[in-house]
Amino acid sequence: MDKEMLKEKVMHGDDNFPIGIHKTDIDKGRDNILYLHWHEGFEYLTVTKGRAVFKVDDLEIEVSKGEGIFINSNVLHSAHSINEEECSFFAVVCHPAFLSSYINDCINQRFINPILNHSLYFPIHLKKDVDWQRNILLLLTQVYDINKEKEFGYELLLKSKIYEIWFECIKNAKKSINKGSNTSYKTERMKVVLNYIHENYFNKIVVSEFASLVHMSDEHFCRFFKAMTHFTLVSYVNRYRIERSCVFLSQTNKKISEIAGDVGFGDISYFNKVFRKIMGCTPVDYRLSQ
To answer: Where is the HTH araC/xylS-type domain positioned along the sequence (predicted)?
Structure first.
């Protein structure tokens, strides 16, 4: 299967300026914040309200207001709320090309590639009580403000701040300790499963088909999937279906019953029920709000 299909579909910036900066507000009552996904860009997330649990590969990290987290290139990650509390955060996502030179110079070789290819690492949970991590958090806030104001030449200033952040990271990085192949193996199997969901979410969910993709028994697969995503297979696929339906609701004039069928719900009543549970409103209200 084509691993590229697993990538997040959102474009972070553009080819001329490959960085995306956005803020997300999660209302009270929502359990899921970020669905399990990955992208080529590396990412810094800063929590500005409440707290959340971020799952990065096999690590689960509770991040509170004023703290942040670093997610390296091509790493599976997701997030969920704690007790369905309100939560807000902003993300800075950079394609590796944003820092790299057109030639593979000493900057790339010594300071950029070693982190991106995981041969160097640093603590990914950024806390206020550690000086260099606090510096990164302050710089990230400056990046967010610079991007928001967009004054003349802001691109130069913004890029210089990203380099300052990277300098703090590389200065405090150490050689990676080989954790063994188990984490990587589980991650790669999960990517195969996500790929299959993205390509077949509108079809009937058959556990045995998913289990056979990764050579597991049905029971073992269900445990594996729940451990990796915090959702049952049916619950996760339904959430992905609702996410896709939101795109159709906001970007097309299709009838709601047609959209429900397109994303895999054969029963419009069940679609409405699941949509309200996940989104906190009806499909009609969601469309009107866009």
So the answer is: 191-289
Tokens of 71: 């997610």
Return the closest-CA partner of residue 67 out of 54, 86, 82: 54
Instruction: Assign domain 3-175 to a CATH class.
Output: mainly beta
For residue 245, what pLDDT is reported? 95
Q: Which CATH architecture has domain 201-289?
A: Orthogonal Bundle (1.10)
- CA distance linking residue 239 with residue 252, whole number of Å: 20
The pair phi, psi for residue 128, each rounded to 5°, is: -75, -20
In this prediction, residues 145-169 reach a mean pLDDT of: 96
Map residue 257 onto helix, strand or coil.
Answer: helix
Closest among 34, 55, 53 to 240, alpha carbons compared: 34
* One-letter amino acid for residue 48 of the chain: T
| Location of each CATH 1.10.10.60 domain in the chain | 201-289
Whether 231 and 239 have beta carbons less than 8 Å apart is answered as yes
H/E segment holding residue 215: none
Which residues make up the CATH 2.60.120.280 domain(s) of the chain?
Answer: 3-175
Strand partners, 87: 26, 50
Residue 165 in contact with residue 140, Cβ under 8 Å?
yes
Q: What is the pTM of this model?
A: 0.77
The two structure tokens encoding residue 229: 């995503």
